[in-house]
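Instructor's aside before we start: the two examples that follow are unrelated to each other. I chose them only because their records fit on one page, so don't look for a connection. First example below.
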Amino acid sequence: MVEFPLPTDATSEMLEYAEMGFEQIFRPNYLYHKVGIMLTDFSPAQQNLQSLFDTKDRSKMAKITEFLDKVNKDYGERSLFYASSGVARPWQMKRNLKSPHYTTEWNQSPVAKVDDKKRPKER
C-alpha cells in the first residue's frame, strides 16, 4: 500500500505514487493484467493541512489539472492525457453494467413526461 504524504487531487501526483506502488509489487516473468486503485480517506480540499516540508507546487498542479479537465470536457475524453497512462488502448471498459451519472450529468437525469390528453381536467 502506498500512502500520499498529503491529501491530493492532482492526477500527476497520483500517477507518481501509483508507479511507486507498482515498483514495490513488480516481479519479473509474471503476466500482469490491468489493475484498479482504491482511494480512501477523502476530505474537502478546504480542510487539507499544509506541510512545511512539502516541496510540490500545489497551486501549479491544480491549474494543470483544471486545464486538462477543461480541455477534455470541451474537446472529448482523452483529448489530452498523461503519457504514463498509456497511448494505445487495446482493451475497452465493459459498459454493460455502468451506472448512469444522474448526480453529475444533467442530460442523463430521468425525465417525466405528461401526456396532456390523458391529464385529468381541472375543475
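Example two begins here.
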Amino acid sequence: MVWYTPSMRKCLCGCGSTTNRSYVSGHNLRNLKRTDAHKSAIASALRIAWRTKRKRLPIGTRRKDAGGYIVVKMVSGQGRWALEHVLVIERALRRKLTKREIVHHINGDRSDNRRSNLFLCRDRAHHNRVHRTQDRALRQMLEAGLVRFRWGRYEAVLSGRCGHDNIGRIAEISYRTYHQWTWC
C-alpha cells in the first residue's frame, strides 16, 4: 500500500511512482542522454579515481593469507595472487601442476616454502596417506619419549644421552615420514 500525502507527488521520469522529491532515487538518470564521449569521460575519471584511491601493491609482493600460506601477487591491479609453495614446485618441475596434485609441507610450517621442505602428492588420497604416516611417526616418538606434549604444545626431547633402545628405529621412521632429526 502506498501512502499518499499532500507533500508527495509523481516521479518526473514518468514511471508513476510517488515520491516526496522530484525523482525516485536513481530515476533522474533515466532521462540522461549518454553519448560515447560522455561514457568515455566517466570511465577515464573512474579509472583515475580507482588508481589513486588506495595503494596498489607491486607484482611480486608476498603476504600471508588467512590459512597461513604465503601468497605472491602475479598480476597488476586487482590481479590474482598465487600460492608460493605451488610456484616453487612448478618452477622445480618446469611445468604447471595438474588439478589433482597437492603440495605437502614436510615440516608442517605453511610459510616455509624451501624446495627441500616441499613434497608433491599425486592426489588427495596420497596426501592423506602422507599425513597418516606423519601422525603415526609422531605417536611413536611420543611413546618413545622423544617428543612430549606440554602446555598445549609438542616439544622435542633432545638429551645428551643416546642409549634409548628404539632410537635407531624411531630416527628411521621420523626421517622417512616427518623430517630429518639430529639426535645427540
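Strands lie at 9-10, 18-19, 62-64, 70-73, 81-83, 102-105, 118-121, 147-150, 153-156.
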